[in-house]
Design goal:
With about 450 residues, the chain is of the alpha/beta class. The chain is about 55% helix and about 10% strand. The structure holds guanosine-5'-diphosphate and magnesium ion.
């Protein structure tokens, strides 16, 4: 998917929130810190990130949790909204006859996007056609002609003629029977006087409904500078950010646009004509955060991680009876696959990695431990020290296991108990613990 890296880090941050024992100021601060790191790595402006962090913290603490929502959902919703805020509104595109002028620096992706837009309108049932007004770059004519032929889109160009303005005038006449007329123009390495001059002249002739500025996503925050400069010259009605499939700086470009007076219309996510997406801030953020997955995780977590099931405070105090362990295993059972659960529970959420191949064994073993514990009395569950060898034999028989399994369970419990204490002291190491237990 586009912007995997940013999406992944944001999702990890929110998973931590889902798995947290309780939602307090400390948890929110920690999650916000993770979000900050993720956004900064994606080249989002520091000031913007700091402002957003402040908003999230304030709102999470001050606003009442809306009816029908739990505290976790409340905070996730705030994060969601604040991220959408950074992106701002998206450009509205109407599905009707119109003229579109493509502008931007050389190599930003204008010509590729021209083909992508043709495909986009084609799929919506409109008839697009294209004029090639790039008389600057050698091979521009060929490139666009090949793309248009591949899509069966009418194409007008005059190979070898340097008069871009004349070409646009004749071209728009030649293709006027089509619905969406797209003019691909030339770029330069920077916004130079002769480029501005040419743009203004083409603009006057074409009278476009839309002027799309095409920006390479890899330029990150510089997007705002370019958007401002082009907007000051002929004005832009929307921005297309390309190459989001190949840059880690995408967050910078996306967030920088709304700082100017413009909005994002489309994003380019690959090199083929189909790799274009209509940009909608809301949907984009939902996908980035993996809202679908997050929602189902939340539901499961709420079901399983009730106060009674996961009394983290008593666990942290080192009071960890077999009964507590049983409750945990029950919660785990309700939650489903071990791997998913480990990432959600406070332990997993705190970044402790469990080796992949450990999950399967662990799941089976834990399942059996529950059966063993079903054969124990209340007294034994609360105070495992009373379990001597006679009781071990009885419990083993009752659960259809050998006595070694019961001993193993008691050892496991002891280790968990020690781990909980050690964890409180910051010494907890899941990997080491699992290894010791032969898992
Ligand atoms: N990966 C990727 N490459 C793109 C995208 N958009 C454009 N490109 C590539 O960027 C290069 C320059 O694109 P082009 O359309 O010729 O830029 P122009 O000079 O502005 O017309 C080409 O190699 C394109 O294939 C995109 O969204 N993703
Ligand atoms: Mg081009």
């Amino acid at each position: 998917m586009v912007m995997d890296k940013l999406g992944g880090s944001l999702q990890d941050a929110l998973k931590k929130l889902v798995g947290a024992g309780r939602i307090d100021e400390r948890t929110v601060n920690e999650v916000v810190k993770d979000i900050q790191r993720a956004l900064l790595q994606s080249d989002v402006n520091v000031k913007l990130v700091m402002e957003m962090s402040k908003h999230i913290k304030e709102r999470a603490m001050k606003e009442d949790v809306p009816k029908g929502m739990n505290p976790r959902e409340h905070v996730i919703r705030i994060v969601h909204q604040e991220l959408i805020n950074i992106l701002g509104k998206s450009t509205e595109i109407q599905l009707k006859p119109q003229t579109i002028m493509m502008i931007g620096l050389q190599g930003s992706g204008k010509t590729t996007t021209t083909a992508k837009l043709s495909r986009y309108f084609q799929k919506k049932g409109l008839k697009p056609a294209v004029v090639c007004a790039d008389t600057f770059r050698p091979g521009a004519y060929q490139q666009l002609q090949t793309l248009c032929n591949g899509l069966n889109v009418p194409f007008y160009g005059e190979e070898g003629n340097p008069d871009a303005v004349g070409i646009v005038e004749r071209g728009l006449k030649a293709i006027e029977k089509n619905d969406v007329l797209i003019v691909d123009t030339a770029g330069r390495h920077s916004l130079e006087a002769d480029l501005i001059d040419e743009m203004e002249q083409i603009h006057a002739i074409a009278k476009p409904d839309h002027k799309f500025l095409v920006l390479d996503g890899a330029i990150g925050q510089q997007a705002s500078e370019q958007a401002r400069a082009f907007n000051d010259s002929i004005g832009i009605t929307g921005v297309v950010i390309t190459k989001l499939d190949g840059t880690a700086k995408g967050g910078g470009a996306l967030s920088a646009v709304s700082e100017t007076n413009s909005s994002i219309a489309f994003i380019g996510v690959g090199e083929t004509p189909n790799d274009l997406e209509k940009f909608e801030s809301d949907r984009f953020i939902s996908r980035l955060l993996g809202m679908g997955d997050l929602k189902s995780l939340l539901e499961k977590a709420e079901e399983a991680l009730t106060e009674e099931d996961m009394d983290m405070e008593s666990l942290m105090r080192g009071k960890f009876t077999l009964k507590d362990m049983y409750k945990q295993l029950e919660a785990v059972n309700k939650l489903g696959p071990m791997k998913q659960v480990m990432n959600m529970l406070p332990l997993g959420g705190m970044g402790m990695k469990v080796p992949d191949d450990a999950y399967k064994v662990t799941e089976d073993k834990l399942g059996n431990y529950r059966i063993v514990m079903d054969s124990m009395t209340e007294e034994e569950l609360l105070n495992p020290r009373v379990i001597g060898s006679a009781r071990i034999k009885r419990i083993a028989r009752g659960s259809g296991n050998g006595p070694e399994v019961v001993r193993e369970l008691l050892k496991y419990h002891k280790m968990m108990q020690t781990a909980m204490k050690g964890f409180r002291g910051g010494k907890f190491n899941m990997n080491k613990m699992m290894k010791k237990m032969g898992m």
